[in-house]
Amino acid sequence: MSTMGNMKFQIKIRSNIIKRYCLPPIIIYFGKRVIDEGFNALKERLEKRKSEKEIKTNSITENPDEMVPSETLNEVLGKSDSNREAELVDNFLYKGDTCLICARPNVGKSILTMQIGLAIAEGASSKLTPTYEKQKSLPQVVYYYDGEMRNSDIRHRFRRGTDKYPKTFLRVRDNNLDSLEKLINDIRRRITKEHPDEDCSVAIDNIACFSRNKSKNNVCDFFKALNALKGEYENRGNSLTVLIVIHTVKAHDKYTPIELEDIAEAAEFGRFANSIIVLEECRLGKNKRILKSLKCKYDAIPEEVSIVNLMKDPELHFEYECSMPEEDAILLKKQKKETGGTHPESAEDSAPTDDTGQSPDKEGQSDMEEGMGINPPPKDGRKEVTPEILLQMKQMYDKGMTQEMIGKSLNLSRKTINKYLQQIKRGEI
Q: What is the pTM of this model?
């Protein structure tokens, strides 16, 4: 065998010997070493994490400087009045509320809701309360989910013209949002994507347009998701305010005040709402409405309701006029004709009305008298003026009501009202 061949043979023999006898122990050694090092590193990491956790726990429990601070009620009350700062509509709506706006059809729910939404978007006064001139807030984005109004309705109601309304007021109209689940998902995507770190408001007009199935479970799921979203905003130091327009039940009598049980799905919607605003028809005039609170977050329910007047300029909106007991402003039932005369259905003297609760137009009536829902006042002497009536008369006058309005409310002639008011001013009664 040649020298070259002999060398190749020897190399082959040595290679086989290494592969057979040396390589496995080497692989096992290094493999074990890698495993051991990995295990030791993992062990050290776990022990370090455990140690850090113990140190952190001990520092919280043993170091008083790390404890959550506490404060007395006096200290809380000494800070800025956060409740007043959070008011959007005085005594009616606060930042972060879930508010129901309730009324019978064609009373003005959409006008009221859009008015509140525009005021929030502008940071302007709502004009719905006696103190509205002092009421200001920072502008915020408002998404108005409109399920009722057509574009022609918008053009008819809002007449300022283009570029005159706040760009922070955004109307959303999508017929594909036909379930509460789709609605809340759209709200979440829209506000978290576009306005995640600022105050935001959402108005839903009305809830029935966005859900054909308002079962108890669906409503609960909707509000749970809504409250979770509001919680996210609150944790970031912001607020999410929600307005929900809802109808009364069909069986509700327009001659009786709206109460909680008169709201559609009251059991489901009412318990999730922080505040409830009601708009009712009023016997003081065809453009007058009763505005009252059924539920309020902070304040007690006022004993008197607000009377608001529907104004046309610069767009359809309501303005506060006065406050009074609800029984003095609610619609009166029409009279039934009986043999020998007329007999009113209600306990108070009333007059014939049409099916809407409004009196027919008569020649010679003033603008104030049109649609009052009552006849011209009776002649003096037909109704006894009791001390209780005198007290009501004085209270109405002190609140800024005209003699004409007082007469319509008390069913007394303007002449009689003037006579007794003069006596009251002179201190004779």
A: 0.63
11 — pLDDT class (breaks 50, 70, 90): low
What is the CATH number for 297?
Answer: 3.40.50.300
The domain total for the chain is 3
Does residue 20 fall inside a structural domain?
yes
Are 104 and 248 in contact by the 8 Å Cβ rule? The answer is yes
Residue 198 lies in a domain: yes
What percent of the chain has a predicted confidence (pLDDT) above 70?
69
One domain for residues 324 and 350: no
Phi and psi based region of residue 415 (left: phi greater than 0; alpha: psi -120 to 50; beta: remaining): alpha
Q: What's the token pair of residue 322?
A: 């006065």
Do 123 and 170 have their domain in common? yes
Cβ contacts of 396 within 8 Å, gap of 6 or more:
322, 324, 328, 405, 406, 409, 410
In a domain, 45, yes or no: yes
Q: Could you give phi then psi for residue 321, rounded to 5 degrees?
A: -120, -50
User: Please, are residues 318 and 311 in contact by the beta-carbon 8 Å criterion?
Assistant: yes
- The residue among 352 and 401 whose pLDDT is bigger is 401
Q: Do residues 312 and 374 share a domain?
A: no
270 and 412 in a single domain? The answer is: no
- Cα separation of 85 and 81, whole Å? 6
Q: What confidence tens digit (pLDDT) does each residue in 377-407 have?
A: 444 445 678 877 888 888 888 877 888 888 8
Across 262-316, where does the E strand assignment appear?
Answer: 275-281, 288-295, 305-311
Q: Which of 9-23, 240-254, 336-350 has the lowest mean pLDDT?
A: 336-350
Does 118 reside within a domain? yes
Q: Where are the beta strands (DSSP E) in 335-399?
A: 335-338, 341-344
DSSP conformational letter for 108 = S
Write out pLDDT tens, residues 108-120: 999 999 999 999 9
The answer on 286 and 192 residing in a single domain is yes
Q: How far is CA 363 from CA 360, 366, 367, 402, in A?
A: 10, 9, 11, 22
- Please report where in the chains the tokens 């409830």 appear, as a residue: 276
- 385 lies in which domain range? 346-425
User: In Å, what is the CA distance from 302 to each residue of 47, 90, 125, 261?
Assistant: 63, 12, 20, 19
